């Protein structure tokens, strides 16, 4: 869901900054950090395509049934551009979270990173709380408005959702270990 | 068009490698990591969104009118994953 994925991208950036803590505390340059490369591999091949997959397959659901135009990307340059901007925004917010975390470590304000993660988790959960239950029905905007659609736990949606969640979970865990290992190695070399 | 975009993506990587030739040949691992970040950020923010944009706006045109199913992606996990793989 767009409203969830954008704060989640920032939270992921902060979480990966926390995992890179040992190295980031020693790295003076914010924009040439050696772990930005591996982190961007995860963002561009692991996290961001997950949001794109759900937006392409179930656009109204991904937009929390707030607008109908999101379903009509065909032959609409502005709507097609919206999808692309969503992916770019996820990657930029992820990098912003990571670089901000690095800045806080550099200026000895370590506790801000934890606060950033907590705030990010709250902002990620907030759209679910405000639109409670809107994720439980799957369908087009018109179907949901007329009480139609099918339940969350039924295929084909559930198969696709479960597949992408497993992918996000596995790539997230593996990337976390990868970046934490690299961070420790780089910190011990300095 | 996808048939063009994939070779263009590979070519862009080659051009960036050519641009960073001296750095690559210097064997400086730290600078290589920085160059990898620049290449990845360029690919993620500029190269990849272009075919995604055309695929979403004009799917049949993007695949050279080869497959009719690209016009009907909604509520099909396997078809949606095609855009994801792009």
- Beta-strand percent range of chain A: under 5%
The DSSP helix count of chain A reads 8
Structural class of chain B: mainly alpha
Q: Can you count the beta strands of chain B?
A: 0
Number of strands of chain A: 2
Please give the radius of gyration of chain B in angstroms.
Answer: 17 Å
Ends distance of chain B: 12 Å
SSE arrangement of chain A, N to C: HHHHHHEHEH
Largest sheet of chain B: none
Structural class of chain A: mainly alpha
What is the mean pLDDT of chain A? 92
Largest sheet of chain A: 2 strands, antiparallel
Helix content of chain A: over 70%
Number of discrete helical segments of chain B: 6
Largest interface: A-B, 43 and 31 residues
In short:
The complex is a heterodimer of chains A (about 190) and B (about 90). Chain A is mainly alpha-helical and about 190 residues long. Chain A has helices at about 1-20, 20-25, 35-55, 60, 75-105, 110-130, 140-145, 155-190, and strands spanning about 135-140, 150.
Characterise the protein shown here.
- The complex is a heterodimer of chains A (190) and B (86).
- Chain A contains 8 helices and 2 strands; from the N terminus they run ααααααβαβα.
- With 190 residues, chain A is mainly α.
- Chain A has a two-stranded antiparallel sheet.
- In chain A, helix 1 (2-19) runs antiparallel to helix 3 and helix 1 (2-19) runs parallel beside helix 5.
- Chain A starts with a helix and ends with a helix.
- With 86 residues, chain B is mainly α.
- Chain B has one domain.
- In chain B, 74% of the residues lie in helices and 0% in strands.
- The model of chain B has no long low-confidence stretch (mean pLDDT 84).
- The interface between A and B is large, with 43 and 31 residues.
């Amino acid at each position: 869901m767009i409203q969830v994925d954008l704060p989640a991208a920032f939270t992921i950036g902060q979480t990966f900054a926390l995992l890179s803590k040992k190295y980031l505390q020693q790295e003076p340059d914010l924009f040439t950090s050696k772990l930005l490369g591996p982190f961007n591999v995860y963002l561009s091949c692991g996290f961001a395509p997950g949001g794109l997959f759900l937006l392409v397959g179930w656009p109204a659901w991904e937009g929390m049934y707030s607008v109908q135009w999101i379903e009509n990307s065909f032959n609409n340059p502005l709507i097609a551009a919206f999808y692309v901007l969503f992916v770019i925004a996820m990657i930029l917010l992820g990098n912003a979270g990571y670089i901000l975390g690095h800045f806080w470590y550099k200026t000895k304000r370590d506790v801000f990173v934890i606060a950033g993660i907590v705030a990010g988790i709250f902002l990620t959960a907030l759209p679910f709380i405000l639109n409670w239950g809107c994720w439980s029905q799957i369908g087009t905007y018109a179907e949901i408005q007329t009480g139609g659609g099918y339940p969350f736990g039924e295929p084909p949606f559930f198969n696709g959702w479960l597949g992408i969640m497993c992918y996000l979970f596995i790539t997230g865990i593996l990337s976390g270990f990868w970046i934490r290992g690299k961070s420790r190695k780089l910190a011990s070399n300095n | 068009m996808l048939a063009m975009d994939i070779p263009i993506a590979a070519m862009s990587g080659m051009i960036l490698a050519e641009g960073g030739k001296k750095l690559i040949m210097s064997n400086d691992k730290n600078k290589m990591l920085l160059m990898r970040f620049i290449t990845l950020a360029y690919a993620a923010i500029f190269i990849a969104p272009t075919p995604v944009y055309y695929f979403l706006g004009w799917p049949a045109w993007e695949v050279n009118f080869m497959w009719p199913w690209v016009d009907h992606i909604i509520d099909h996990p396997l078809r949606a994953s095609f855009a994801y793989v792009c």
